[in-house]
Write a structure and sequence with these properties.
Blueprint (H helix, E strand, L loop, with lengths): L33 E2 L1 E3 L2 E3 L6 E6 L4 E7 L3 H19 L4 H17 L1 H12 L3 H22 L3 H4 L5 E3 L2 E5 L5 H14 L3 E5 L6 H12 L7 E3 L4 H9 L5 E5 L2 H10 L6 E5 L5 E4 L5 H13 L11 E5 L3 H13 L19 H16 L3 E4 L14 E4 L6 H4 L6 E7 L2 H9 L3 E2 L1 E5 L3 H10 L4 E4 L14 E2 L2 E2 L4 H6 L2 E3 L1
Parallel strand pairs: 1-5, 7-8, 7-10, 8-9, 10-11, 12-13, 12-18, 13-16, 15-16, 18-19
Antiparallel strand pairs: 2-3, 4-5, 6-22, 11-21, 14-15, 17-20
Helix pairs in contact: 1-8, 2-4, 3-4, 4-6, 10-11
The structure holds adenosine-5'-diphosphate.
The site of adenosine-5'-diphosphate (ADP) has 16 residues, from helix 8 and helix 9.
């Protein structure tokens, strides 16, 4: 299709990125040189006496070292959680439980700056995102579920609501504090106690949260936070006295967990990978849609399970959308996550950067056309330019497998049925986005897209009151909202 001349005028962006640096100060972050395990209300040395480093992925400098919990430590943490459940938490009036959760929420707010800085240093995400999204949303989760604690009979009318017991919670590295809040807040509100393990590359904000929990005088053992890698997570999953597993992470580990608990009474919620379709119809407001695509795939470096990583554009507007998208991409600043101008920070780890680079090669070998912006990236640290692939086939691995980086595939479609078929043609089913001016089209799409969350004319919007979760290989169970309570109770 011939593009009108007016459409081909390129917007001019400052390609030298000559914005004055606007660095956030590190001074707000008090990071200890070493962290022990938070068990039974106090920090304890790991029984194997082993520690591992956590680094800043933007500079590759060591930030701290954290304890590696072995099976004996997991046993201790689960025992502390069981004792706290039996002797204190289960018996405590719900409105008293709520007070503790409100207290944690307020303390997270009071120390928001410190949390944001540590989140960015430890994980690589832009400070703007930790400050404006991760930390406030984490506090909101505590506030929201604190409100439910003494109202469970309204959440489940005419039912006897019982907690499950000890919840083993394993979280990933993309939203470390927020995932801890997603897991801990509903568990406590419903009367369960917790053993939580943060991801090995991003343990620091969970350990800060442990400090807050200690200061908040939460009864010892109600929340235990232990650090370690996959083996520590597996020990939690396999522990016979854990009643519920809440896991967010990769589909591969989700499958391992599913197998491990298959013969047990453990309840589980698994929030796994995704490969979301973001769909632009020709009647959509294209500038807003392009903004939504940028947010959908480049937010948090694309380390988002619900990232809009497959873009489908109706053929008649394809060229216009592609031009607008490339123009907008050129304005993205990749670099120091602590700089408030930065749009795309550091990739979380060297190994994740290797995964992304592997997929960039695979995409090109598969015959897709790769486009990256011309921006400069720091020499040290783990960085990836915003990337799009065109000329993509539905069967290509880059269109089927989760990359978990700032990499977008773009395909076209002509009809609603065609795009529904293509959007659903993936092993995952976590989220999707639809951009159109027509309400009827939105309803048609949302009923036919097999995705747990479908955003219409927006993307990546989160709220504690909204349930979140997937279909198919994206896992099962819902977190957030009223549905999120359900995962932590038995209804009699
Ligand atoms: P990612 O690919 O995003 O790193 P993972 O699924 O490997 O995601 O990790 C998510 C969380 O699961 C991390 O806290 C990690 O330590 C933990 N984990 C890894 N392997 C296992 C396992 N076999 N059992 C339980 N937890 C695990």
């Amino acid at each position: 299709m011939a593009t009108k001349k007016s459409n081909t005028i390129k917007l001019k962006f400052d390609s030298s990125r000559n914005l004055a640096p606007a660095p956030e100060s590190k001074s707000a972050a008090k990071i200890n040189s070493r962290y022990d395990l938070f068990i039974n209300g106090k920090f304890e040395k790991p029984s194997g006496k082993k520690y591992f480093d956590t680094i800043n992925p933007a500079t590759e400098e060591k930030l701290s070292e954290v304890a590696e919990a072995n099976e004996a430590d997991v046993n201790k943490a689960v025992k502390a959680a069981r004792d706290a459940y039996d002797k204190v938490w289960k018996k405590m009036p719900a409105k008293e439980r709520a007070k503790y959760i409100y207290r944690i929420a307020r303390m997270v707010q009071e120390r928001a700056r410190e949390f944001s800085v540590i989140e960015t240093l430890d994980g690589g995400k832009p400070i703007r995102e930790s400050r404006d999204f991760d930390v406030p949303t984490a506090a909101n989760h505590f506030f929201y579920y604190a409100g439910w604690a003494d109202k469970l009979e309204y959440a489940f009318p005419n039912r006897n609501v019982e907690p499950l017991g000890v919840a083993g919670q394993i979280i990933p590295w993309n939203f470390p504090l927020l995932m801890a809040a997603w897991k801990i807040a509903p568990a406590l509100a419903t009367g369960n106690t917790v053993v939580l393990k943060p991801a090995e590359t991003t343990p620091l904000t969970a350990l800060k949260l442990a400090e807050i929990i200690e200061e908040a005088d939460l009864p010892p053992g109600v929340v235990n936070i232990i650090t370690g890698a996959g083996a520590t997570g597996a020990a939690i999953v396999n522990h016979p006295d854990v009643n519920k597993i809440a896991f967010t992470g990769s589909t591969d580990v989700g499958k391992i967990i599913q197998r491990a608990i298959a013969n047990t009474n453990k309840k589980a919620t698994l929030e796994l990978g995704g490969k979301a379709a973001n769909i632009i119809f020709d009647d959509a407001p294209l500038d807003q849609a392009v903004e939504g695509v940028i947010n959908g795939i480049f937010f948090n470096q694309g380390h988002v399970c619900c990232a809009g990583s497959r873009l489908y554009v109706q053929e008649s507007v394809y060229k216009t959308v592609l031009r607008k998208l490339k123009d907008r991409m050129e304005s993205l600043i990749v670099g120091d996550p602590m700089d408030k101008n930065t749009d795309i920070g550091a990739i979380n780890s060297r190994s994740q950067l290797e995964v992304i680079n592997k997929y960039l090669k695979i995409g090109q070998q598969e015959g897709a056309e790769m486009y990256q912006t011309a921006c400069s990236i720091p020499k040290k640290g783990f960085f990836c330019r915003p990337t799009i692939f065109t000329n993509v086939a539905q069967s290509n691995r880059i269109a089927q497998e989760e990359i978990f980086g700032p990499v977008l595939t773009i395909q076209t479609f002509r009809t609603d049925d065609e795009v529904i078929e293509k959007a659903n043609n993936t092993p995952f089913g976590l989220s999707a986005g639809v951009w159109t001016d027509k309400g009827s089209k939105i309803f048609n799409m949302t009923t036919k897209l097999r995705a747990g969350v479908v955003w219409a004319n927006t993307y990546n919007k989160f709220d504690p009151t909204s349930p979140f979760g997937g279909y198919k290989e994206s896992g099962y169970g819902r977190e957030g909202g009223l549905h999120g309570l359900n995962a932590y109770v038995s209804l009699v």
